[in-house]
Amino acid sequence: MRKLLSATAALSALLATSLAANAADMYVKAPPPAPPPPPFSWTGFYIGGNFGGAWFHADDVRDTLFGLDFGRQGNNNGAFIGGGQVGFNYQVNTVVFGVEGDFDWAANNNNGTAVIIPTVNPLIAGHSFLVTGNNRWAATVAARLGWTATERLLFYVKGGGGWVGADSFTITDVTTGLSVTDGTSNNNLGGWLVGGGLEWAFADNWSVRFEYDFLGLNSRTFTVPLTSPFIAFRGDTFTTGNRNLSMATVGLNYRFNWYNNTRPSPVTTRY
């Protein structure tokens, strides 16, 4: 009996030692590494603000009745502009398609140079005339096409249309103090837009942009009413052509990008 107990104890000890050795030699599977975040994408809606400068250009103002040249209406006078933009981007590989709308207020640019007009009409001979018309705001709608030089650096061009809200067209006889103003209720001027720039995403949802836009506007005309105190110009039509607006701005955008904000759910490992 004693021999049986001794043999059983020895067998149990040997079995325990073998199990411990096998357990020590078992391979323990390491948990899988965390999945990498998805690549950065420009896809998404965005909204932002911008500020910068604008420069207006137009040919000299001329009239139909006498063929007189009244000088340029605030030509190339720079003005501060500021406003906002909203748009949408969709990225395919390294190409980004988009559409954007901008609206900017313009600081006072109601400037002009008084011009002395020598004329055969004795009513205005030697008088000095000033032509003014303040551009108050500019709005644009354009398609954008971009290329990602790096994952977060986007170069783009844009094209579309735009409108400028202008104050009434005013002609002043500086010599006598008389003036006549365009009474048209709608002084908005439309035209075509081209532009381009670069945009850098310094964070997943934030980007800064630098942009230049050129807005070519329609000609502006004004016919002096027959009841105007400007007797010499009653019924005369004043026209200024080749009107355009150049805008250089810096902007900040916040992108509501569901793609970048989507992360894979954690992987649960069972043992």
Task: Give an overview of the whole structure.
This protein is mainly beta. It has 1 helix and 15 strands, in the order H-E-E-E-E-E-E-E-E-E-E-E-E-E-E-E. The chain has one helix spanning 2-25; strands spanning 44-57, 62-63, 78-92, 95-106, 115-116, 128-132, 135-150, 153-166, 170-173, 179-181, 188-201, 206-217, 220-223, 237-240, 244-256. The chain has an 8-stranded antiparallel beta barrel. The protein has a 4-stranded antiparallel sheet with strand order 5-6-9-10, with no helix packed on it. Residues 261-271 have low confidence and may be disordered.
Tell me briefly what this model is.
The chain is mainly β and 271 residues long. It has one helix at 2-25; strands spanning 44-57, 62-63, 78-92, 95-106, 115-116, 128-132, 135-150, 153-166, 170-173, 179-181, 188-201, 206-217, 220-223, 237-240, 244-256. The chain has one domain (44-256): Porin (Beta Barrel), CATH 2.40.160.
How is the secondary structure organized here?
Blueprint: H1 2-25, E1 44-57, E2 62-63, E3 78-92, E4 95-106, E5 115-116, E6 128-132, E7 135-150, E8 153-166, E9 170-173, E10 179-181, E11 188-201, E12 206-217, E13 220-223, E14 237-240, E15 244-256
Antiparallel strand pairs: 1-3, 1-15, 2-14, 3-4, 4-7, 5-6, 6-9, 7-8, 8-11, 9-10, 11-12, 12-15, 13-14
Determine and state the CATH class: Mainly Beta
Overall form:
rod-shaped
Q: What is the number of strand segments?
A: 15
Reported CATH architecture:
Beta Barrel
The number of helical runs is 1
Beta-strand content estimate: over 45%
Assign the structural class, choosing from mainly alpha, mainly beta, alpha/beta, alpha+beta, or little secondary structure.
mainly beta
Mean pLDDT: 81
**Unreliable runs:** 261-271
The main sheet comes to: 8 strands, antiparallel, barrel
Order of adjacent strands in the largest pleated sheet: 1-3-4-7-8-11-12-15
Element-level helix/strand string: HEEEEEEEEEEEEEEE
Distance between the termini: 44 Å
Say what the CATH topology is: Porin
Helix content: under 10%
> What is the count of distinct domains?
1
> Any idea what the radius of gyration is?
36 Å
